[in-house]
Amino acid sequence: MRNLRFRTTRWLNNLLAFRHWRGRAIHSPFMYGLVRRVWIERRMTLEEYLGCPLTEAGDTSPDTIEAAARDLLSTRSDGLACLVVCGVDRRPERYGICRKIRSGKYCVSVDRYKTWYFFFDPKLRPQHYKIRCNSV
Fold this sequence. Notes:
Blueprint: H1 2-16, H2 29-40, H3 46-50, E1 54-57, H4 62-75, E2 81-86, H5 92-102, E3 107-111, E4 115-120, E5 127-130
Parallel strand pairs: 1-2, 3-5
Antiparallel strand pairs: 2-4, 3-4
Helix pairs in contact: 4-5
């Protein structure tokens, strides 16, 4: 019952969160380019746009996801690092871990309802985006 309540509230919040739909209200050139080129126009893949490999945390435990985020933050060189967490809409514990990671230093996070993306780069201003454009 708790899981059903969580999924229902996440779905309702998804419907109400059209704040960054189609790139509107995004003032960061990095994020605007990401939304327009990768998710809306589909001109390039995420790896091509970022210029770095992705670290995916698919069906792993929340502890493993948190460890992957810590590892990426500590071992990345001067460049950008990206962590992708899937299945957030189905598991409350994953949602909690994602909220904990997004509050970290040097982290730009993107909530796409089912998938969260974390970009670790000291050059980017820490910010959280809720984006509801074409599904990936």
